[in-house]
Backbone:
């Protein structure tokens, strides 16, 4: 099933047209989004998701989103969802129609979680490193590049995923021109080594991960060290465990990188997922 | 006025919703576009525009567009346009709704040309060079970066234009990490020096310009040399003339770059525009 609620709180038919052809979200990819995991009716990390929506909107100089209205919207979608188990709520916020003067477009859509994503959480995935084509040093100098904003301009992210699919690989890990790890097209990269979890910093032009944040919070309480710092690409293969992390993936283990098997991190993955899940009990 | 025709050839109300909330053009910037100038009912460079639409679609692995259908669509929009003078027809082609299995979305919309763009053709413009954050050497290595495809993922292009606006500047000229000139967010860069017109090559990750192509064709017949080759950023200020070129801009002279006045290219601009216009008489 799918459930759609427009920003004014009205439920609408997700199969009907609701967007104008001149919406700048469509014609210019000029908008931002979030995907929130919902388990048994409870949205996870909603505060961090809404905070990131605000930060992304600010980077695009969109009107500040009314977070209370967005929170209500998530509740409306969840309330109309009738299937058990997990779902995702996608929030989309655009600059709105170019020729109406009517202001931004906003909606939330409830979606099922894809079967492959669920299976991958258990089986683990293969991944390939791909160049992202920028040097993290540019991030601070050039805010117009919007590095670190979760925008609707995801054509490159989608093209990278198609490229991986042609290679027969499940996931992409982007690498910067300086040889440091960035992120996946729709995930955060986390490595575990000797009791420490590490992830690349937002100053490298990556999104601060909401699920990664929850995992680190849980891990710290369980005695892990955590570091948000640059990570060299050549460290990925030698870590105790490599993970791609997102709302939908949770903590998904990478078992093969660039065609080579990684150290077996099955137990480590199970342990980290248990920590993450314990955040919501 | 605005005129909208959907890809099946039906005219529709441009102020009504026609796009689903799960259209991948909207949620992922996953689509391509073109903007065609129409003068007195005649579309300019329609063949090159449609060829570029095809190339962009191929880079995104979209289904090959039916160019005869798109050409008809442009004719339908022009036929329904009742105002004299110039207009633009924007073609938008997306991967379509994520959850329908119904295939791509396509439409053409007829729009008036903005007064500022028309005035700038005569007055000339100020411009600022901004980093685009990639090295042109990556273009061939990393096709998933879609450099040189005219995609809907234009959030960075729009952010760069907003950045210029805050600086009180009209136009942006993007520069690569290797110090070569790339393009504007929605324009092609052309310099004139000693009887030669130059523009950066597609291998640098820029769009091949349709208006630049027409200008070069016309200039070659009038005895100019033309070169499509890398152009160093430090050559912009010393050229006889610097121009930003697009369907809507035609050949617009840059009179001030990064705050410094450039050599007066008023006459040169008039001459080049006359050459360009002569292509359509």
Residues:
């Amino acid at each position: 099933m799918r459930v759609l609620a427009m920003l004014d709180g009205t439920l609408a038919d997700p199969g009907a047209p609701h967007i104008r052809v001149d919406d700048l979200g469509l014609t210019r990819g000029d908008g931002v989004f979030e995907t929130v995991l919902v388990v048994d009716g409870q949205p996870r990390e909603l505060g961090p998701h809404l905070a990131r929506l605000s930060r992304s909107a600010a980077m695009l100089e969109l009107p500040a989103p009314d977070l209370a209205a967005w929170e209500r919207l998530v509740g409306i979608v969840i309330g109309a969802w009738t299937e058990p188990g997990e779902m995702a709520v996608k929030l989309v916020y655009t600059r709105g129609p170019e020729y109406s003067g009517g202001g931004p477009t906003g909606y939330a859509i409830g979606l099922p979680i894809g079967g492959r994503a669920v299976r991958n959480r258990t089986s683990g995935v293969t991944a390939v490193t791909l160049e992202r084509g920028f040097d993290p040093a540019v991030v601070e100098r050039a805010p117009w590049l919007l590095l670190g904003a979760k925008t609707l301009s995801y054509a490159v992210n989608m093209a990278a995923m198609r490229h991986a699919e042609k290679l027969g690989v499940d996931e992409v890990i982007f690498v910067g021109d300086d040889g440091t790890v960035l992120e996946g097209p729709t995930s955060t990269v986390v490595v575990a080594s000797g009791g420490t979890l590490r992830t690349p910093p937002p100053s490298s032009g990556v999104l601060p991960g909401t699920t990664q944040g929850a995992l680190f919070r849980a891990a710290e309480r369980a005695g892990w060290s955590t570091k948000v710092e640059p990570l060299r690409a050549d460290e990925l293969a030698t870590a105790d465990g490599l993970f791609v992390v997102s709302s939908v993936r949770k903590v998904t283990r990478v078992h093969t990188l660039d065609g080579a098997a990684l150290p077996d991190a099955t137990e480590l993955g199970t342990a980290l997922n248990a920590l993450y899940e314990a955040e919501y009990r």
